[in-house]
């Protein structure tokens, strides 16, 4: 609702509200939209939308709840399990995660028997925590305001001082904790630690999940603390906590607390595509993965498709930028490092204790054109100098009936003998693939992962679909939260 002056509910307002809520159409529509459950926030939201102003006094919620004649909140609270959720990172993915959770609460209650309660959200500047009642979480109206303010570019640190909350700090149902303390536990005043301790103390949650939707390499200590000391489940869209040095990131995060079962990270590879869960099923099903080949970048997939159609490299990249497919500096895509991080995560899940330096990564631009040496504007000016070499690669592939693709490949060795010594080959770069192969038929921004295994060969098991984008990534994160709830809360 647009910001409007806060005022108390008068008797006339109360009567009007009563009449509104009694109205059959309104009641049916509102009740349905809340899945026949109106909680305090939802009721207040209905009341305020109808009245057109924010209500300062008590009463409206009761009017709505009584008139809707729906579940009593406390009965409902006892009936379902509550999962506390903390979201680190309120960029496009973090905000979309909140939207999905808020929009599907009735489905989670009915389908999983659990309710997700947002108890804290953080960006790089601050963490906002539920304060008035941790068990109820941050009220949805407050979350909506916060998300809108973040989408408009206001850092969380400043959000506290922006209207409408500024004037009424004492009435605030959330608190702000500076986020510098999202860094190591050794700071002694970790905001996440404080929040998880309070969540533990209040005893309202069957489990607490921390979802890392940041792009930071500095969250790993906080995540380890949450998993190890508080038994929180960790869900990641952020690849960095799993793709840094093996021992201090991947191994440490997986092995602490309740081990791998408390760590879910489907969205780190292929966004919402079931790449990780399929791999885990193959492994736990007793299969033996021999080779993984993947096209794991929508941007590079688009470029390869356009190059195959005869478009110049520089023109294809300009198109990709215009369509919004690239990072702000496209060299982040062209360097292959993002694909290499995904390949490293998959290789590590296969038991390879690899470091990034073990992967051969082919960049699509020379080091002389790297960000440290060339501004973005100069890079774009010099880009056409790469056109002819790239055109030659495409033509060479075509001449032998193949297509050029940017492929991550993990070759575990051909032997099916588990005792044989394996020397995995990890490579990320341009590769000629047969036109009729799965990777050869891939077009546009879709991702693909092909698992060649003892059971799936010579034809591999193929996963294909959109492997990037805010909605599919956020959907993968929320599906992981639901999995965590199933593993930890629902008995
Ligand atoms: N977008 C996609 O299609 C996609 C697909 C797969 C995976 N992912 C991954 O999902 C993650 C989020 O992507 P995005 O597109 O939403 O990124 P984004 O828009 O850049 O948002 C990142 C958010 O993380 C916050 N942040 C940075 N350091 C933090 C810290 N130490 N603690 C808490 N929050 C911190 C940032 O804060 P400020 O707002 O203060 O800067 C920002 O809100 C990334 O790791 C990305 O690689 C994205």
Characterization of this structure:
It is built from 22 helices and 15 strands. It is an alpha/beta fold and 491 residues long. It folds into three domains: 6-74, no CATH class; 80-271 and 472-488, Rossmann fold (3-Layer(aba) Sandwich), CATH 3.40.50; 280-468, Dihydrodipicolinate Reductase, domain 2 (2-Layer Sandwich). The strands form three sheets. Strands 6-5-4-3-7-8-9 form a seven-stranded mixed β-sheet, sandwiched between helices. The chain has a six-stranded mixed β-sheet with strand order 11-13-12-10-14-15. Helix 1 runs parallel beside helix 4 (60-68), helix 6 runs antiparallel to helix 8 and helix 6 packs across helix 22 (470-488). The longest helix is centred in the last third of the chain and has 19 residues, at 470-488. The protein is globular, with a radius of gyration of 26 Å. The structure holds NADP nicotinamide-adenine-dinucleotide phosphate. The site of NADP nicotinamide-adenine-dinucleotide phosphate (NAP) has 29 residues, from helix 6 and helix 22. NADP nicotinamide-adenine-dinucleotide phosphate binds at residues 88-94, 122-125, 155, 179, 182, 213-216, 218-219, 237-239, 267, 271, 468-470, 473.
Task: Write a compact overview of the structure shown.
The chain has about 500 residues and is an alpha/beta fold. It has helices at about 10-20, 25-35, 40-50, 60-70, 75-80, 90-105, 105-110, 140-150, 155-160, 190-200, 220-230, 240-245, 245-255, 275-285, 300-310, 315-320, 330-335, 335-350, 375-380, 385-400, 440, 470-490; strands at about 5, 55, 80-90, 115-120, 125-130, 175-180, 205-210, 235, 265, 290-295, 360, 400-410, 425-435, 445-455, 460-465. The protein contains 22 helices and 15 strands.
């Amino acid at each position: 609702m647009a910001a409007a002056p806060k005022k108390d509910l008068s008797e006339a307002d109360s009567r009007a509200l009563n009449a509104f809520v009694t109205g059959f159409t309104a009641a049916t529509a509102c009740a349905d939209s809340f899945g026949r459950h109106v909680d305090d926030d939802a009721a207040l939201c209905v009341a305020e939308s109808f009245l057109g102003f924010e209500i300062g006094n008590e009463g409206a919620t009761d009017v709505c709840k009584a008139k809707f004649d729906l579940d009593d909140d406390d009965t409902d609270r006892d009936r379902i399990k509550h999962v506390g959720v903390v979201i680190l990172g309120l960029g496009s993915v973090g905000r979309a995660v909140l939207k999905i959770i808020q929009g599907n609460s009735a489905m989670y209650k009915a389908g999983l028997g659990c309710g997700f309660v947002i108890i804290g959200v953080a960006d790089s500047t601050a963490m906002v925590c539920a304060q008035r009642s941790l068990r109820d979480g941050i009220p949805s109206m407050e979350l909506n305001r916060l998300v809108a303010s973040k989408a408009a570019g206001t850092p969380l640190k400043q959000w506290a001082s922006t209207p409408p909350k500024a004037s009424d700090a004492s009435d605030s149902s959330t608190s702000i904790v500076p986020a510098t303390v999202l860094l190591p536990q050794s700071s002694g005043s970790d905001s996440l630690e404080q929040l998880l301790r309070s969540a533990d103390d209040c005893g309202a949650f069957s489990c607490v999940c921390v979802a890392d939707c940041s792009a930071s390499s500095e969250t790993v200590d906080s995540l380890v603390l949450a998993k190890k000391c508080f038994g929180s489940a960790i869900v990641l869209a952020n690849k960095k906590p799993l793709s840094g040095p093996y021992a201090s990131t991947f191994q440490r995060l997986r092995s602490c607390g309740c081990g791998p079962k408390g760590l879910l990270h489907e969205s780190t590879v292929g966004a919402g595509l079931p790449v990780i869960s399929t791999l885990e099923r193959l492994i736990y099903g007793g299969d033996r993965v021999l080779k993984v080949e993947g096209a794991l970048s929508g941007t590079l997939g688009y470029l390869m498709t356009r190059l195959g159609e005869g478009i110049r490299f520089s023109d294809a990249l300009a198109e990709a930028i215009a369509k919004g497919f690239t990072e702000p500096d496209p060299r982040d895509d062209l360097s292959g490092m993002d694909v290499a991080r995904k390949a490293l995560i998959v290789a590590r899940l296969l038991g390879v204790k690899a470091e990034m330096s073990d992967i051969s990564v082919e960049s699509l631009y020379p080091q002389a054109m790297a960000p440290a040496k060339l501004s973005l504007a100069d890079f774009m000016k010099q880009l056409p100098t790469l056109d002819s070499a790239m055109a030659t690669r495409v033509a060479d592939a075509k001449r032998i009936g193949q297509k050029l693709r940017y492929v991550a490949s993990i070759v575990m060795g051909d032997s099916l003998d588990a005792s044989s010594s394996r020397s995995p080959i990890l490579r990320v770069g341009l590769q000629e693939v047969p036109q009729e192969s799965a990777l050869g038929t891939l077009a546009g921004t879709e991702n693909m992962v092909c698992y060649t295994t003892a059971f799936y060969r010579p034809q591999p098991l193929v996963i294909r679909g959109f492997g990037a984008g805010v909605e599919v990534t956020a959907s993968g994160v929320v599906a992981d939260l639901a999995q965590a709830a199933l593993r930890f809360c629902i008995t």
